């Protein structure tokens, strides 16, 4: 194999051809192989041999008047097989039409007339060689870029961008296709336990196993670190049937890596359509994750995108409310069971939307997703302190992780307390049940700082989700607010009664007071008093209101 690039000279006059070759050998012979041909047919044979050797054919110098195929015809034909090769016409008899044809259809690089100027010829060929290799380098870089753009770096399988490109192409041609998504639910735990490199090997092995199972009849895509897509021309039902045995393999067998077996928990979804089929399958995958289904979840019309548009519109309203300071506190009284008076209030966030008041069940989840929950919390704290600055009551405010994760939050609270001239002991911050201190250690530091400046701390919804016994060690709370699911059936449910009784005894042991939430009937209140719970809160005493009642109405 000759690795040196080639320059090919074509002319039917032997003396001219020999002279041309000798001149080029002197200048380019050390780096290039100079080949000659006396006709277009001979040149084509040489070009086939060069292609077979995978060497570069950088420049072709061709006469116009030759036996058989003329120069312009040859160059135009050559453009189909060698578009990058630089083509130079060296002739003394070419008509203008032939040169025009070569320029327009054969991408002629230069035209030189016979007899040629040696210096001009050498300079032209040098420039042609430079242009050839620059374009080759650019093509290689573009290919590398395309590989980076359209293939996953680790597995080398087509990636999400490649899938989108394929779907767009099929969408233009109105091709119906089916898609199936596989999500690896074990992804976080494997990485946490064994590291990313082990997971990559497992994932690559899974892709290979899937490709073998499909026998390359369907295209497999490595979408994300935990997601695979299978695109097929089969109907959705046929694709699912084809994948059932693969799903059974994953459910029953482990993937073995270096003698260690890994069981992969997966979720599956499918859809059919054109350009939108991946988006449909993704909606079905969300449902599969929510339901915890290990079967195939197919896209149906009830998963339409209408609710996404609605969510976006609600999010716009939330942002507008923050900008226009329309986050307003509502207040619910907390009864002191000793004095039978409402002595403190919980401040509850509401959003004012024209003449409508939006409750947290409408905006809270969206605010967490967009990150606007932090600004809602800060406005709530400021508005609540402002409201109670000239009133004698204590008050409590809910905190989310968004506030607690900032180290400067306690300093900000201290500054607002000073601004409104409020004693820190009057303020209780309620730690919501969805805060995980293990994920953000700053939350614990912030709570301790709040206690240091004198604020009270309550654990809200005690007994559910993260609000467990371990939290007592972390927080050292002043109050435990028992979750409503334990309170609402207290008279009828003996287990609930025993659990509440245990929480009350636990609270006394650690020096915390107890608040019972969701008290909405006298029978519940009677049992709460019997259990010795210090405070009660619920609709039996007061519904959330934008203003607190007059002092004379707070005694029951």
From TrEMBL:
Response regulatory domain boundaries: 6-129
CDD domains in the cross-refs: EAL
Presence of keyword Ribonucleoprotein: no
Listed GO biological process terms: phosphorelay signal transduction system
Domain EAL intervals: 311-556
Sites of 4-aspartylphosphate modification: 63
Molecular function terms from GO: cyclic-guanylate-specific phosphodiesterase activity
InterPro entries noted in UniProt: CheY-like_superfamily, Cyclic-di-GMP_PDE-like, EAL_dom, EAL_sf, Nucleotide_cyclase, Rev_trsase/Diguanyl_cyclase, Sig_transdc_resp-reg_receiver
Keyword Metal-binding included in the entry's annotation: no
Keywords linked to the UniProt accession: Phosphoprotein
Any Pfam family the entry gives: Response_reg
Protein name (record): EAL domain-containing protein
Native source species: Leptospira kanakyensis
Species classification: Bacteria, Pseudomonadati, Spirochaetota, Spirochaetia, Leptospirales
